[in-house]
Amino acid sequence: MSQTATLRVRVIDLETAGSSPSDVCEVGWQDVEQQTDGTWQVSAGSRGARFVDPGRPISPGTMAIHHILDEWVQGAGYWRDVAPAVLRPDGAVSALAAHRASFEQRFCTPDLTGSADWICTWKCALRLWPDLPRFSNQMLRYLRRPEGLDHDKGLPAHRALPDAYVTAHHLRDMLNTVSLEQLLEWSREPGLLPRVPSGAHRGQPWSCLSDTVLATLARDRDIDIRFSAATEIGRRGGQASVGSGKPAQPTLL
Fold it and tell me: Does the keyword Hydrolase apply (predicted)?
């Protein structure tokens, strides 16, 4: 790129051998940079991936997802040793980003990131493109066909660098639509689902539901459903509490 970047957001994608904090077996990153004219671009050179030793064997079921073999990661360095250089690079970043960032945040803890802010591109996609039928990283790739996304660089799916590369193109388009601050604000809240994701009212917009149904859904165990129902209640002039709980993202739209 001929222009000098002024701000940088680093997209992170992890492949893991399990759910414990040290179970990372691959990390990929792809930077998105703001140019001097104010636009954001996917960096041509600030990207990479490396294997990480999870310290235990990878199960066959997990290998069937990302196809990473034990012999590839043995001796590659443990996550706590590998993470700082990736998550806190020279030159600093304005934020970290991931698609369904709550997963990456389980492993990229504040002590490893320096308490960096996070953008969740899944939550932001719900806000910016609510008319789309699905919101997974790969579905957004084919529903939207982001400009400049090299098909081969985005493969294979379920590997850290290709997935980060795809996410970065969604993030670039988001940053060229709304501000970085707006994406951070949306990412701090639960997901605002455009439609009811499951149950008897699956697929219906919140605006079509009765007050009684909304009141029930505002007490759902899924925080994204609670938040979405409460938002519609608030739009109608009522009040509803979203309730407490970790803002997990269990519903795949």
Answer: yes
Q: Are 96 and 108 in contact (CB under 8 A)?
A: yes
Position 163, amino acid: D
Domain assignment present for residue 227? The answer is yes
Sequence letter at residue 175: L
What domain range includes position 77? 7-188
Eight-state DSSP code of residue 39? -
Same domain for 154 and 203, yes or no, is: no
Confidence tier at 253 by pLDDT (50, 70, 90): low
Model pLDDT, residue 30: 98
Q: Are residues 44 and 151 in the same domain?
A: yes
Strand 95-98 with 40-51, pairing:
unpaired
Q: Which position has the token pair 């999870």?
A: 54
Residue 2 lies in a domain: no
Q: Given a cut of 90, is residue 247 above it in pLDDT?
A: no
Q: Does the predicted model carry a pTM greater than 0.85?
A: yes
Domain count, the chain: 2
123 and 14 both lie in a single domain: yes
Contact between 101 and 119 under an 8 Å Cβ cutoff? The reply is yes
pLDDT digits (tens, 9 = 90+) for 56-101: 999 999 999 999 999 999 999 999 999 999 999 998 899 999 999 9
Name the nearest CA neighbour of 97 among 4, 12, 222, 181: 12
| Local structure of residue 61 (DSSP, 8 states) | H
Same domain, 26 and 131: yes
Q: Does residue 1 lie in a domain region?
A: no
- To the nearest whole number, what is the mean pLDDT of the chain? 93
pLDDT category of residue 245 using cuts at 50, 70 and 90: very low
